[in-house]
Write a structure and sequence with these properties.
The chain has about 120 residues and is mainly alpha-helical. The protein folds into two domains: about 45 residues; about 80 residues, Cytochrome c-like domain (Cytochrome Bc1 Complex, Chain D, domain 2), CATH 1.10.760. It contains five helices and no strands. The longest helix is centred in the N-terminal third of the chain and has 42 residues. It binds heme C (HEC). Heme C binds next to helix 3, helix 4 and helix 5.
């Protein structure tokens, strides 16, 4: 059975080649990867996805699990002068009691704006 070790050696050599190629690939891509990730942080996600991630736990379907009357429904937002994207972005930076504050660092303006637009068109 001299062929079996031969095959084994070939496979091993192939594996080494694949591994070193993929390592090289990663090293070569690192700049590109982080640029891509920065893009994602500022604009890769939809307003819907961001809302789900950052807001929906307390505002499922635009409601409010803590203060039932403070929903994100258009009529309620209008009554509270929050029915536009600027006002909503400002609001999350300085929210009412019981809602965590979203700083520019934790939720950059472009993301906050996407969420605001999603809220306005959805609820
Ligand atoms: C931990 C729970 C929590 C999270 C997370 C949260 N909120 Fe709130 N939110 C609240 C509470 C509580 C209030 C009521 C504050 C008050 O009494 O003024 C509120 C109020 C609001 C209001 C005012 C509604 C009104 O009718 O006056 C808006 C707008 C709002 N949230 C948007 C958001 C957005 C957008 C996000 C995500 C970026 C978010 N919230 C995340 C708890 C939360």
């Amino acid at each position: 059975m001299p062929r079996v070790p031969m095959v084994g050696t070939k496979i091993a050599a192939f594996a080494v080649l694949v591994i070193s190629l993929s390592l090289l690939g990663c090293a070569g891509q690192q700049g590109g990867m982080s640029a891509g990730m920065a893009n994602d942080a500022s604009g890769g996600k939809t307003g819907a996805a961001l809302f789900k991630q950052r807001c929906a736990s307390c505002h499922p379907n635009g409601g409010n699990v803590f203060k039932a009357e403070k929903t994100l429904h258009k009529a309620v937002l209008s009554a509270n002068n929050l029915a536009n994207a600027d006002a909503l972005v400002k609001y999350v930076r300085k929210p009412g009691q019981g809602m965590p504050k979203f700083s520019e660092r934790s939720l950059p303006d472009p993301e906050a704006r996407k969420i605001a637009e999603y809220v306005l068109k959805t609820f």
